[in-house]
């Protein structure tokens, strides 16, 4: 069993709180195994995926999550059930793009790796924490993010694996980015309920093909995609069409990696985010 899986098992036993529910598993049975995953009624687990240093001396901490339901998607709005807190004075967390929608995902990658990241200053050391609180299906969970050596990530490439994150460019911008911190579409996209929306990205990688996955990151309504994940030819643009069912503010997350199996090695993928304002 890998070190990260052992840590994940320990986390699961430590942080899952008491709560009997039709599909929930009693605390006494909260031991990691495939039996913990149910069709519905289980929580979404917040996960600290690691951190990496930046050239300017700052560090980037990233969080992912694990939906333990095979059929139930959960919406957890920002507030008392979905929030961040830190002990580092003056660190502004208001602009962090916390996910509020959590799809049930295929078993081969139910762990969504580094769904969002937070840049912290050089003074943020091993004694500091950013804690993500995520309460769902009557279970109150939290996980601390920290800059300790065992959790440092290869970013945006891994010499040991000979791998590198795809290079992503959005729209007409000349800016191109590799890695988990990602790239954000430069404008808020304006749309209406049930109007067809097309999002696109140009992706480059040394391999001939890369995996591309699109996700509803945040926003109150339902998002329907024409194609949520697929293999794509490197060195070209890819696009997806979607409809949104309710007005509000939304973020769509795109993740791309050369091979989906590489997620388990914690390297090397790129995130892209699209903000969409939807009117009636």
Please provide a written account of the structure.
- With 280 residues, the chain is mainly beta.
- It folds into two domains: 3-151, no CATH class; 157-279, Immunoglobulin-like (Sandwich).
- The protein is 5% helix and 44% strand.
- It contains one helix and 21 strands.
- Strands 13, 14, 16, 18, 20 and 21 form a six-stranded mixed beta sheet that branches. Strands 12-11-15-19-17 form a five-stranded antiparallel beta sheet, with no helix packed on it.
- A hairpin with a 6-residue loop joins strand 11 and strand 12.
- The radius of gyration is 18 Å and the shape is globular.
- The chain starts with a helix and ends with a strand.
Quick rundown:
This protein is mainly beta and 280 residues long. It is 5% helix and 44% strand.
Tell me the layout of helices and strands.
Elements: H1 3-15, E1 44-53, E2 59-67, E3 74-75, E4 82-86, E5 101-102, E6 111-120, E7 130-136, E8 139-145, E9 157-158, E10 163-164, E11 167-169, E12 176-178, E13 183-184, E14 189-192, E15 197-204, E16 209-218, E17 223-225, E18 229-233, E19 236-244, E20 248-257, E21 269-279
Parallel strand pairs: 13-21, 14-21
Antiparallel strand pairs: 1-2, 2-6, 3-5, 4-7, 7-8, 9-10, 11-12, 11-15, 15-19, 16-18, 16-20, 17-19, 20-21
Which keywords apply here?
280 residues, mainly beta, Immunoglobulin-like, 2 domains, 6-stranded mixed beta sheet, 1 helix, 21 strands, 5% helix, disordered N terminus
* Overall spatial form: globular
Report helical residue fraction: under 10%
- Structural class computed from helices and strand pairing: mainly beta
How many helical stretches? 1
Enumerate the spans where pLDDT stays under 50 for 5 or more consecutive residues: 1-22
N- and C-termini, Cα separation: 50 Å
Q: Output the helix-strand order.
A: HEEEEEEEEEEEEEEEEEEEEE
User: Can you summarize the main beta sheet?
Assistant: 6 strands, mixed
How much is the average pLDDT? 89
Number of strand elements: 21
Bin the strand percentage.
35-45%
Q: What value does the Rg take, in angstroms? A: 18 Å
Number of domains: 2
